[in-house]
Design goal:
Blueprint: E1 2-5, E2 11-17, E3 20-27, H1 37-49, E4 51-56, H2 73-85, E5 91-96, H3 98-109, E6 114-120, H4 126-133, H5 136-145, E7 147-150, E8 159-162, H6 163-169, E9 185-190, H7 198-207, E10 213-218, H8 228-244
Parallel strand pairs: 3-4, 3-5, 5-6, 6-9, 9-10
Antiparallel strand pairs: 1-2, 2-4, 7-8
Length: 245
């Protein structure tokens, strides 16, 4: 594991393996780190294929510096751009959940650096879903204290949701603005995902424009998308995107 410093002065932990291009960059989800099942499986696949690979932790995540509560979508987007900028040539971005949101932003705004895109249970604009689901009492607490705690199925302790996270994310929403993806893109989604509904994936596909966009729906797959079949599908979609890049 190594560290890189972003232009904003944040130190990000990352693991890079050499290989031919286009390389693959894995972007993890909200409160996830680079040691997850999907990241490690994809790294092993890339190494076996002789392809360059990069996984990293956003600031406030995993082994990177910073506090999670200081994070925003814009800050984590800056982190992603810094990590991607450290690679050689165009990359295939593989974004999981929140990482899908960030990968879409990078692909939209920096297309010359993105050879292809694969999203896994992409969660664009999920902060607006959190806001919409908050009770009047939670919104009052958010305004008074600057944060609330919300339970999650993915950790023993509640997630801390800050007012800054909700407000700043509105500068980076995907669905209200045009989204053109000139590179091949594959959106993977499970029907049993209780965090990102299938309707969101369908809306994303309908909203985006581009010459080579496809949505792959997997019956009974959940938000983790980490069964052996799902992991094999992720690798297959990356290979397809590379072949069409």
């Amino acid at each position: 594991m190594e560290y890189l410093e972003t232009p904003q002065g944040r130190r990000l932990a990352h693991v890079r393996t050499p290989g031919r291009g286009p390389g693959i960059v894995f972007l993890g989800g909200f409160r996830s780190d680079m040691t997850g099942t999907k990241a490690l499986h994809l790294q092993a696949w890339a190494e076996a294929s002789g392809r360059a690979f990069l996984r990293f932790d956003y600031s406030g995540h995993g082994a990177s510096d910073g506090a999670f509560e200081d994070g925003t979508i814009g800050r984590w987007l800056e982190d992603a751009r810094a990590a991607i900028a450290a690679t050689d040539g165009p990359q295939v971005l593989v974004g999981s959940s929140m990482g899908g949101w960030i990968a879409l932003l990078v692909a939209r705004d920096w297309p010359e650096k993105v050879a292809g895109l694969v999203t896994i249970a992409a969660a664009p604009d999920f902060t607006e879903d959190i806001w919409a689901a908050m009770s009047r009492e939670e919104r009052a607490a958010l305004a008074a204290r600057g944060f609330v705690q919300r339970p999650t199925d993915y950790a023993d302790t509640p997630y801390v949701i800050t007012e800054r996270l909700i407000a700043e994310a509105r500068d980076h929403l995907i669905l209200p603005a045009p989204l053109h993806l000139p590179m091949p893109a594959r959106f993977l989604q499970g029907t049993a995902d209780t965090d990102v509904p299938l309707e969101r994936a369908l809306r994303l596909l309908g909203h985006a424009t581009g010459p080579d966009l496809r949505l792959c729906i997997v019956k009974d797959a959940d938000h983790r998308f980490s069964t052996p079949d799902c992991l094999a599908l992720i690798a297959a979609m990356v290979a397809e995107v590379i072949a069409r890049a």
